[in-house]
Specification:
126 residues; mainly beta; Jelly Rolls; 9-stranded mixed β-sheet; 4-stranded mixed β-sheet; 13 strands
Amino acid sequence: MLNFPDAPTSGATFTNGSLVWKWDGIKWGAGGLDVTYTLVAPTTGQTVLLTLGKTVLNPATPLAALTLQLPTAADTNVVHISTRQRIAALAITSNTAAIDWTTTELPQNGQLDFTYIASLNAWVRA
């Protein structure tokens, strides 16, 4: 289990094994080879802007509602989302591409993968 500092300042780092996590003022992010891992602790009703790579949602308690916004993408990109708590109503949006998604529940320890297909300018659930 990761034990991040309680009140980090922007730019603060935290090392766990071979990964160095950096606080950007909103969330902890860590780089590893060609995959970016982002740990987010959302609250009910919040909109989380996702990054390419893997995002782990780590809310303190189950959430009634959450919106995830997919990033701008080019070529073929992948977003992997996992959650440690139940999200009763998960909405997923994109400002730049089509996405076929209906608000639905994501169970505790649930996972979703989306792949961006440039030729379609669309995010497709993998």
